[in-house]
Write a structure and sequence with these properties.
7 helices; alpha/beta; single chain
Length: 218
Amino acid sequence: MASTQVGEFGRESVIAAVAALKAGKPIVVTDDESRENEGDLILAGECATAENIGFIVRYSSGVICVALTDERCQQLQLPPMVVNNEDPKGTAFTVSVDLKQGTSTGISASDRAATFRALADPASGPQHFNRPGHVFPLRARAGGVLERDGHTEASVDLCRIAGLQPAGVLCEVVNDDGSMSRVPDLIPFCKEHGLVLTSIADLIAYIKSDLGGKVPGQ
């Protein structure tokens, strides 16, 4: 695993983030200051547990999403949440879902973790989910961060690079007062919790320089 200090962005931070995802750990990914200027906790959907989803709930906005490919959304029959998407950043929400079997109300950390794992599992089909629910799938662009430099696409791209199912849990990190965490807040947060911090800009550069401009599986 690459060694990188929190706050030291660049190629090594991407390598460290991929290694952390492989190990089932959450990471934090920032976008550009001119965009949302936010940091998202990102976790591979297949690695979701009651413990790590509980951690994300505690330190985030609580509206936990899962980025999926367009193909996977079609397989699961997940249409857009609304006909006319007016989100300024074009975030492609689908209808919300809960896993039918093995869950109760769907909102607990364990219930949502089960739903995330099922959404990442190729063996799961549309019949395995209730609609609406407490988990919010997002449809990622086919070209990943090279097409749209958003956390949705970063989640899928990072999971693919890690050799995992292209389904990434994501949620915005917030401060104790409920305000959005920016980089000066995220550096001490990641240090405190032992999390890798990287950026979408670094991911884009890594895909271009190390992967020849193509993420495996795209």
